[in-house]
Design brief:
The protein is mainly α. Helices cover 80% and strands 0% of the residues. The chain is built from 13 helices and no strands. α5 packs across α7. The longest helix has 34 residues. It is globular. It starts with a helix and ends with a helix. The relative contact order is 0.21.
């Protein structure tokens, strides 16, 4: 019976990884479609969290009271995770608004590198030669993908706003993942998800206020198609985050982040299919090399 339970858990984790791999790129597609229609990126960020928070608050009505008896540590790590998550997602939406999916998606592969560096300085996890080789593969693969830009693979490239936004989003969400793991260990994937949505809605609203984005003005821009895109973004983001939480409950963060990089290939195809982004074969080659690097980092553990 115990062996069966272990196998079923493995199946569910695999399904969750696949959901995470596909949901994130599709969320980026709908974000790009919505922000390309001149809907403000910070409004899209807030509306996404708000829709998910409303769904969670409705769900809380059906939760037993014991679900609310949480430690002070839980609230502390939830707060830190929410700050990083809201800021990271805001930067991500801005990056998607201005940049090409097939370029921005592969940049996220560096999250494995960030996670490994955090492990060195905070967790004293020293990588072996396979981990170092994995980093080299990610950098090599990014040469092929980022080399398709006008600036090529150079420091000049990082002066581009879309790349700066994507790098900021990557770093913040990598740190968020570490904090979120602590939240899940102190509660459960479901409670961690509710915390992520509600805190995220609160902090993304503060970002809207800080940048003086008019909610009334943005809401007036929404037609049927824009509302549909917003609902699809919320659905994809919700699926992405809940599956992420579930995987974090059973797998080390660095390993999970590495597996999630398989979404790079999906991003390249979606960028080509929906937005006509060129040099498909070169980008796919680069993405494949970066995925190989992520796998090597996993085997380093």
């Amino acid at each position: 019976m115990q062996i069966f339970a272990v196998r079923m858990t493995g199946v569910f984790v695999t399904i969750a990884v696949l959901l995470r791999i596909f949901s994130n790129p599709f969320a980026n597609v709908f974000q790009k479609k919505l922000t390309s229609g001149y809907v403000h990126a910070l409004f899209v960020n807030f509306a996404t969290y708000a829709l998910l928070a409303i769904a969670c608050l409705i769900g809380l009505l059906f939760m037993p009271p014991t679900g609310f008896l949480l430690s002070a540590a839980f609230w502390k790590w939830s707060l830190l995770s929410a700050i990083c998550g809201a800021l990271g997602n805001a930067f991500l939406v801005k990056a998607v608004e201005q940049g090409a999916l097939s370029v921005l998606g592969p940049v996220n592969a560096y999250k494995s590198v960030v996670a490994m560096l955090i492990g060195v300085f905070i967790l004293q996890e020293i990588p072996g030669w396979t981990g170092i080789l994995g980093v080299a593969f990610i950098i090599w693969g990014s040469y092929f993908v980022l080399g398709t830009t006008e600036e090529g693979f150079s420091w000049q490239l990082f002066k581009r706003k879309d790349i700066q936004y994507r790098v900021a989003a990557m770093i913040l969400t990598a740190v968020e993942a570490v904090f979120l793991k602590r939240v899940i260990l102190l509660s459960s994937p479901a409670i961690g998800f509710v915390s992520w949505c509600c805190y995220g809605a609160a902090f993304s609203f503060l970002l809207v206020l800080a940048r003086r984005v008019s909610l009334k003005k943005e809401i007036r821009k929404l037609g049927r198609r824009q509302v549909l895109y917003l609902l699809l973004i919320a659905f994809c983001m919700g699926m992405m985050q809940f599956s992420t939480n579930y995987v974090f409950a059973y797998m080390p963060v660095a390993y999970a982040l590495s597996f999630f990089q398989l979404s790079i290939i999906i991003s390249v195809f979606l960028g080509y299919s929906f937005f006509g982004e060129g040099q498909l074969l070169r980008k796919l080659l680069g993405a494949a090399i970066m995925v190989a690097g992520a796998v090597l980092i996993v085997t380093a553990g």
